[in-house]
UniProtKB/TrEMBL annotation:
The lineage of its organism: Eukaryota, Metazoa, Chordata, Craniata, Vertebrata. It is found in: Lipid droplet; Lysosome; Secreted, Extracellular space. This is Sphingomyelin phosphodiesterase. Zn(2+) 1 binds at residues 113, 115, 185, 366. GO terms for cellular component: extracellular space; lipid droplet; lysosome; membrane. One of its GO terms (molecular function) is phosphatidylcholine phospholipase C activity.
């Protein structure tokens, strides 16, 4: 099957892929790859060397189901399932109260989505056809194109190491910190050319760079979707041998051993998640959110609570409830962007343990935003919020940034809630003018407040205004800690918010 016409409609592409997918022989698997690859090239979706990458993990019937629909294959990661909660009644809800004036506070540094590009090249084209630009292979910029700046670029570009190091130097000066949350995505977005050796090298370099700049400070990491190769590929623990994630988890355990106790390293090696007591009365749970991601094709094998992670989370939360501990949850992908059943079960867990979970911290979107959780009985009383911090990287069209959380501190009776947060950004426009050094880094009713939020959401670099339908859908998404609620936003406001987020990040 060859697509020889110079122009294709979506129907033509779907028909060609569907015909190739309807058989399952090894020969036909090659035909699927050829058809999809050629369609990608001729539709100018990317350069020829990038196009074949995305479907490399799929069998023909799976690729067909993913691209065309369930009519021609099986891609069944959407089946509903439920976790089991203990039959212990939920304790009475105590409304939160502000701490007394002068009460201790904890100052927490939060880092996410560093995306260091080893091949970042100053002066290269920042406007190329590849998913990642600002590299020698991007070529020189034409007279209509931008060139890569010294510290970074407003485009499809990640960061040079000098900017990452400068950010850490700035963060060290801004402290002191009580501890650090770091929610992953270390490598750049050149996902079509990454190797395991490269991923592990970058993990090691950035981990040791953080350690060298922040000293003996405790850092609690979480795994991003870009840590593996191929990107988003995280097989459940029952997959053994060369196809498993053992190569990644073992290196993480080795590099993160100065920060984590042995029991945490044990579950990290098993499934990429762990729990640690941060201080007496406060526990952190680091989740592997790749087990909730629809882009993780391994979940087609079994998407029902992969690695038994949510059931494990329930066990941890129940034990913390009985001990009177407060729990912070950290992870990479926000729960509202997860597979529907995973997201629904997580939302259910947050509702049950609202008196125990006092902080949720995520990244992945590269934006400064949040997702709300409400009492399931009425969907009117807020029971929690997932804070989504902005990225260190500029990808796409952003200033670099990092987050600081002020948390109710270490004293008897502390709520451990987030009291306030600050975001530090690097103004690239100003920084690239002086490359020798950088020294620092009610919405619907009040449009001024919303536009200020929109500006801060993009870390001070807004490429287009947000009004009318855009404004309404953004506010809707902020209220949505469950994936199906995001879908409702799309239906109510005729948007494509969920798809737009995935297209930008994945």
């Amino acid at each position: 099957m060859v697509l020889s016409s110079p122009m294709y409609s979506d129907v033509t592409v779907e028909r060609a892929v569907g015909e190739a997918c309807n058989q399952t022989s090894d020969v036909n698997e090659e035909r699927v790859a050829r058809v999809v690859g050629e369609a990608c090239i001729r539709l100018h979706l990317a350069e020829e060397r990038v196009c074949p990458f995305g479907l490399s993990l799929l069998w023909p019937s799976e690729a067909c189901a993913l691209l065309v629909g369930r009519s021609c294959g099986r891609f069944d990661i959407y089946a509903p399932w439920n976790v089991t909660l203990p039959r212990i009644p939920k304790p009475p809800v105590t409304p939160p109260t502000p701490p007394k004036p002068g009460a201790p506070q904890s100052k927490v540094l939060f880092l996410t989505d560093i995306h260091w590009d080893q091949e970042y090249a100053v002066g290269s084209s920042a406007d190329c056809k590849d998913p990642l630009c600002c590299r020698n292979e991007s070529g020189p910029p034409s007279w209509r194109q931008r060139g890569a700046g010294f510290w970074g670029s407003y485009s499809k570009c990640d960061l040079p190491l000098r900017t990452v190091e400068n950010m850490l130097e700035n963060a060290a000066r801004t402290g002191p910190w009580d501890w650090v949350y770091w929610t992953g995505d270390i490598p750049a977005h050149n996902v079509w050319s990454q190797t395991r050796k490269q991923q592990l090298s970058e993990l090691t370099v950035i981990t040791r760079l953080i350690h060298s700049h922040l000293g003996n400070l405790k850092v609690y990491p979480a795994i991003g979707n870009h840590e593996s190769t191929p990107v988003n590929s995280f097989p459940p623990p029952f997959v053994h041998g060369n196809r498993s994630s053992r190569w990644l988890y073992d290196t993480m355990a080795e590099e993160w051993a100065p920060w984590l106790p042995e029991q945490a390293l044990k579950t990290l090696r098993h499934g990429g998640f762990y729990t640690v007591e941060v201080q007496p009365g406060l526990r952190v749970v680091s989740l592997n959110m790749n087990f909730c991601a629809r882009e993780n094709y391994w979940l087609m094998v079994n998407s029902t609570d992969p690695a038994n992670q949510l059931q494990w989370l329930i066990h941890i939360l129940q034990a913390s409830e009985e001990k009177g501990e407060r729990v912070h949850i950290i992870g990479h992908i926000p729960p509202g962007l997860c597979l529907s059943s995973w997201s629904w079960n997580y939302y259910h867990i947050v509702n049950r343990y609202e008196g125990t979970i006092t902080g949720q911290f995520f990244g992945h979107t590269h934006m400064d935003e949040f997702q709300m959780f409400y009492d399931e009985a009425t969907m009117t009383r807020a029971v929690g919020v997932a804070f989504i911090a902005p990225s260190v990287t500029t990808y796409v069209n952003l200033n670099p940034g990092y987050r600081v959380y002020l948390v109710d501190g270490n004293y008897k009776g502390s709520s451990r809630f987030v009291l306030d947060h600050e975001t530090y950004i690097l103004n690239l426009t100003e920084a690239n003018r002086q490359p020798e050094g950088v020294s620092s880094l009610t919405f619907l009713r009040d449009d001024r407040v919303f536009q200020r939020f929109w500006y801060l959401r993009h870390k001070g670099h807004v490429s287009e205004p947000c009004i009318d339908a855009c404004k309404t859908t953004v506010v809707c998404s902020l209220r949505s800690g469950r994936y199906d609620e995001l879908q409702q936003c799309d239906l109510l406001f005729r948007g494509d918010m969920v798809a737009a987020v995935r297209k930008t990040l994945c």
